[in-house]
Specification:
By secondary structure, the protein is an alpha/beta fold. The protein is about 45% helix and about 10% strand. The protein binds the ligand O=C(O)C1=N[C@H](C(=O)O)C[C@H](O)C1. Its main location: cytoplasm.
Length: about 290
């Protein structure tokens, strides 16, 4: 199980591979995950934004968790498995969070409830109830997707809950992490906005959940370690060299560019997405291939 001490380092949010007919491609998933096993990451995140959570059924998520646990075990690895269980309904979020625990997940990534635009009190109550499940909970703050922004006070209140072990900050800036660190919040905050990774580390982030770390994983790990060792100039140099890739991967909706690259590299059988997500433009394909040197 994850806790507030071991939630740190680089986590890779995994894509959900689909066959050309749109069904889950378990064979491609196993191949892709086996390739990730060769890298020195802290863990994987299933059913995050990168995993196309809105169009993946809970049965499919369960299958991905089972496959992931089997592969990690067969490789003799100790990788942490975080599963996205958040919905915009407290009841179903609690149910999924408990089911993720039963499947062997180490923590649940719970997005701030989207679409309904609940009050700050409603959001805090949502997390209080989910935290009572006993599953370690990571709060996922991504206001440009949810339509509602956590206030600093609400974020601090939620982070103070027993059972909430940390936060993934995709708030689109440094204001939230800076304010929480000013309040001496000790629970780990992971960067969830790739372009801000270095800035978040500068403000005390404990690591990152970064879609771009599917590519050039070792370089992201180097940035993290160099920064940890106080070698900020070298960390900045390494990070600068990652910025063109990050910019391309987020130029069109994540994870479409990443899926295209993974299929271009032969790790996925196709770059199929489920509607309303669409494949990337030809212009971006050309730029991505050039950036990756193939
Ligand atoms: O899959 C995730 O979790 C991530 N989500 C962010 C987003 O696209 O909103 C980006 C981050 O790299 C990983």
């Amino acid at each position: 199980m994850l806790n507030e001490t071991n939630l740190r380092g680089i986590y890779v949010p995994v894509v959900t591979p689909f066959s050309l007919d749109g069904s889950l491609d378990g064979i491609a998933y196993d191949r892709y995950l086996l390739d990730l096993m060769n890298r020195d990451i802290q863990g994987v995140v299933i059913n995050g934004t990168t995993g196309e959570a809105p169009t993946v059924s809970w049965e499919e998520v369960s299958e991905l968790v089972r496959r992931t646990k089997t592969i990690i075990r067969s490789c003799g690895k100790q990788l942490q498995v975080i599963v996205g269980t958040g919905t915009n309904d407290t009841h179903s979020t609690i149910k999924r969070t408990m089911q993720a625990g039963a499947l062997g997940a180490d923590a649940a990534l719970v997005v701030v409830p989207y679409y309904s635009r609940p009050s700050q009190a409603g959001i805090a109550e949502h997390f209080r109830r989910v935290a009572q499940t006993g599953m370690p909970v990571i709060v996922y703050e991504v206001p440009y997707r949810t339509g509602v922004r956590l206030s600093v006070d609400t974020a601090a209140e939620i982070l103070a809950l027993d059972g909430v072990i940390g936060m993934k900050d995709s708030s689109g800036g440094i204001e939230l992490i800076a304010a929480l660190k000013q309040l001496h919040i000790a629970k780990p905050i992971l960067c969830g906005e790739d372009a801000y990774f270095l800035k978040h580390l500068d403000h005390g982030a404990a690591g990152g959940i970064l879609a771009a770390a599917n590519m050039r994983t070792e370089k992201f790990i180097e940035v993290y370690r160099l920064h940890l060792d106080g070698n900020s100039t070298e960390a900045a140099q390494r990070f600068d060299s990652l910025m063109p890739l990050i910019e391309l991967l987020f130029r069109e909706s994540n994870p479409a560019p990443l899926k295209w690259l993974l299929s271009h590299q032969g790790l996925l059988g196709s770059d199929t997405l489920r509607l309303p997500m669409m494949p990337i433009s030809e212009a971006l394909q050309v730029e991505l291939a050039k950036e990756m040197g193939n």
